[in-house]
Design a protein that fits this description.
Helix content: 55-70%
Radius of gyration: 16 Å
Structural class: mainly alpha
Largest sheet: 3 strands, parallel
Distance between the termini: 42 Å
Strand content: 5-15%
Shape: elongated
Strand order of the largest sheet: 1-2-3
Number of helices: 7
Length: 129
């Protein structure tokens, strides 16, 4: 099993560089792939800011990619929960932070928008210090 970098995933999802797309596609065709949480977080940011993908487009692309039989995620439960929360209008990075905080007492933040949105989708305490 091999891990892939953000640029491999982005090339595969965008096809913006035909030669690199072919290499990324071939890699995903022949290898068992693991995608780490940090790579997923960076991919979402790159696709949203550099490629102007809409959040729903990103989540659809991720769902298709993560559903491939040879693709594993470093933290499947975290990413699944984060994707669900992101679909409910929580920022993707915030959703990952929240999902990764579930084993703790609470998540402290100064971000009032994050606090309000989290309160609408989960009972887990996200609060201001």
């Amino acid at each position: 099993m091999i891990s892939v970098d953000t640029n491999i995933v982005v090339r595969l999802l965008t096809g913006d560089d035909p030669e690199q797309f072919q290499k990324a596609h071939a890699l995903f065709e022949k290898e068992d792939i693991v995608i780490t949480t940090s790579i997923i977080l960076e991919c979402e940011w790159v696709l949203r800011y550099a490629y102007q993908f809409k959040p729903a487009e990103i989540m659809d692309a991720f769902a298709a990619l993560f559903g491939l039989p040879n693709v594993s995620l470093q933290e499947q439960a975290v990413i699944s929960k984060a994707m669900d929360w992101h679909k409910q209008n929580l920022d993707f990075a915030d959703a990952i932070h929240l999902a990764k905080s579930q084993d703790y007492e609470a998540l402290a933040t100064f971000d009032r928008t994050f606090i309000a949105k989290a309160a609408r989708i989960t009972d887990f305490p996200v609060k201001s210090p």
